[in-house]
């Protein structure tokens, strides 16, 4: 059967294997549900196993259960060694021979660091597409970029990529697309760069993992961007997200139409209030929930640096929205704090005796936090300090790292978390708001002074 399967050419070969649990164990475990728990076999069962498979062990040695191997120089041993060497040897090893990539400086995204023109409203999804286009046009890394979409490219405003770089199809376009008379029609090509997987989140994630690990498997760094409805991400393919982490993948996952206040007309199936909580437990997944385009630009540029210049084995999960609004200019000198997960967006009036409150927020809800600050001042005379928190998860990890360092270095000056340092000298209650379940923001509660 093996020979027939191996020698058949010209078409796929299907092997149907009929197996028996505990085969060869006899009444000690063959075809029994207890096979998994069987720790030892009685001597009689071992003897029958020996006889059935012609194992060269004498009766006087059978109770010792000796280790059996093939003779040196035998065909069997040579075959096994040859197969092992084809696999790279006896010890697993990760190859790190890919060259570092020269990633763009933050200045390449300068347009996103400035305020949008008056009256011009954009979503963070549109900001991501602008960043993606900038990277695709970059002469150093453009050819390494792999955009992946499981379903609706147009939902994310990515249809411009159809004409620009095309959708990859190993056989090229085999049909006339329904939108062929439009400027940005559905263009497939053997040289296309977009991977369009239909409604197949698991398949698209496998594409992403293949590209995200190419630095090791092929010695070539690829930069995959997989964008999908955030409710249909880790909730559907959680095991693959963990597999990506185990395989030390590098790349960007983008949860579009994120949060619980988006796409309400389509019901609860689209309202994601927990993907950030799920991603928070994957230690080498770096997650952010940005509000403004400048936050997204800073975060993605830093991610490119970490993964492709420094070759750090992490991957990013970013949530982006479809809500359109005006974006302010980035406050001066906050780049480092954005990456840490918390920065001061706006400060209340100094030296004011008015009641004061510290307002924190992320994602689309941070805009409601800003509106709340304006309302508090206008209607109640309460001053507010506003803090953008694009990553409560990174803030929590920093806090736990600091706690551990302090525990292991009791005689050294004690360190403070970024949350503690940011809030220790301000006054008033601290209130945090997000579009996600309470467990998401509660991660930083132990570090609020």
Automatic annotation (TrEMBL):
Domain Transketolase-like C-terminal: start-end pairs: 341-445
InterPro entries: PDH/Transketolase (IPR051157), PDH_E1_M (IPR041621), THDP-binding (IPR029061), Transketo_C/PFOR_II (IPR009014), Transketolase-like_C_2 (IPR055152)
Segments forming domain Pyruvate dehydrogenase E1 component middle: 114-328
Name by which UniProt lists this protein: Uncharacterized protein
Source species of the chain: marine sediment metagenome
